[in-house]
Amino acid sequence: MEHNNNGTDLTAGLISSAVAVVLFGSNFVPVKKFDTGDGMFLQWILCAAIWTVSLVVNLLLHCPKFWPLAMLGGCVWATGNITVVPIVKTIGLGLGLLIWGSFNSLTGWASSRFGWFGMDPEDISRPLLNYIGAGLSVIRQSTALRLMAWIIYGPKTFLNYKTEYCCVLAVTSGILYGCSFVPIIYIKDHGKRNDSIYAGSSQYDLDYVFAHFSGIFVTSTLYFLAYCMIMKNNPKVYPQAILPGFFSGVLWAIASCCWLIANHSLSAVVSFPIITAGPGIIAAMWGIFVFKEIKGIKNYLLITLAFCIILAGALATAFSKVEMNNQQMAAVINQTPLI
Question: What residues contact 227, with CB distance under 8 A and at least 6 apart?
């Protein structure tokens, strides 16, 4: 399947991105009210659910060819995810999410834009718009990061060895997250070359979801077994978190499938700034309207400002890749089919 860069392709990419943003911002809601302990058992349950979803998708796609290299991306993601446990315990989910989200966005965008790790650099019709969109994404997250660090830790107590260590872990986690799709894109790019072992490989990103998610499950299982050994076969298991954790993993897996569809429809250089910037706002909405964690006019105004920045960045990024005439633009806006 090729990138058509027409109104239908753009619409599919934006809808997939929107669904991914909503689900990524909501996937931890099911487990919020349950004790998950040190998180090691929960992450293994999450990854079991992720693999289950990929199995269903693989069957629906009639079992496309399995490329083992795509598993490497899952291994990279699971390694980044394992660092979340100490990060959340030390600096909290909100602050950790902002740090690793920023570096996830930058790494994923830059590697696709400039062709790192052996990938082909992405051609952009409107480079300035793409740079603006990526910049607005980072500005939103970095501004929120400074505000949250100040509120939680204060101007003097933020820097200490534990928070510094976990901030470094969060940066590392974000970079690993941002590299997780590299093997898939690498296979696709080299699939266009007749002299490559990947010649003829699928150009549809979702065809690699089973291999990618299998890498996640295998790696997380190995980490969990190592954890059980360290705990002398007495891991902290929380049965009440199993069903909520599984459902949480299903939400994450569906979001990631939508991300892969967005990568295909828009390209990774467009989808990364959009999808990595939005979940924080969705999580904030849950905190405002459901859990009542965020209150006050000032906080509401800050969130509204952040939403406006994200929206502006998403639109700039989305339209940086496409070239449309007036008829196609009208079709996207009006959601009507092109003649």
Answer: 40, 235
Contact assessment for residue 242 and residue 43, using Cβ atoms and an 8 Å cutoff: no
Query: Residue range 9-18: average pLDDT?
Result: 88
Tally Cβ neighbours within 10 Å of residue 325.
10
Which pair of structure tokens corresponds to residue 256? 């990631």
Name all contacts of 296-304 with Cβ < 8 Å and 24+ positions apart.
Answer: 302/147
Residue 27 DSSP code? T
| C-alpha dihedral sign at 77, 176, 228, 33 | negative
User: What are the C-alpha distances in Å from 291 to residues 155, 288, 301?
Assistant: 27, 6, 18
**Residue 63: alpha-carbon gap to chain centroid:** 24
How far does Cα 58 stand from its chain's mean position? 20
Distance (Å, rounded) from C-alpha 331 to C-alpha 6? 10
Query: Are the C-beta atoms of 266 and 17 separated by less than 8 Å?
Result: yes
Q: Of 113, 108, 164, whose CA–CA distance to 138 is shortest?
A: 108
How confident is the model at residue 213, as a pLDDT? 98
Under a CB-based contact definition with an 8 Å cutoff, are residues 326 and 5 in contact? no
The closest alpha carbon to 101, from 141, 134, 71, belongs to 141
Phi-psi region of 154 (alpha: psi -120 to 50; beta: other; left: phi over 0): left
Minimum mean pLDDT among 5-19, 231-245, 277-291: which range?
277-291
Helices (H), 179-296: 182-190, 209-230, 242-266, 268-277, 279-289
Helix axis angle for 268-277 and 7-24, nearest 10°, is 30
Contact 280, 98 (CB under 8 A): yes
